[in-house]
Amino acid sequence: MTARGDELLSGILAEEQKIRQEISALEKEQSVWVTALGVELEERLAREENELEEECARSLNTAELEARKEADALRTAADAYRERIARLTAEELEQVIVRYLGRLRPEQGHDRQDEQT
Question: Fewest 10 Å CB contacts: which of 11, 37, 43, 107?
Fold first, then answer.
């Protein structure tokens, strides 16, 4: 090889080395970016998970409060009904029972459940 050839080869090798360094630097940048993106996504996921857990807890609390209100209302109505029945005389109670049983009695003579209509 000639001096000119050696010089040219040396220049090519130097450029190749520079390109390899640039590629290595880009790979490091990419690695840092991917890592940062992963951390950001994990943080976002954790925030969203916390928000969903809080929302779920609020919804559960609201549902529990509504259920307690409804249970209290039913308990109040049942207590009032029990008090009204307790104040009935024997005759009045008998009339209520007869009326109630009348509602249970099959209509128009259809007293057998196994018969087809």
Answer: 107
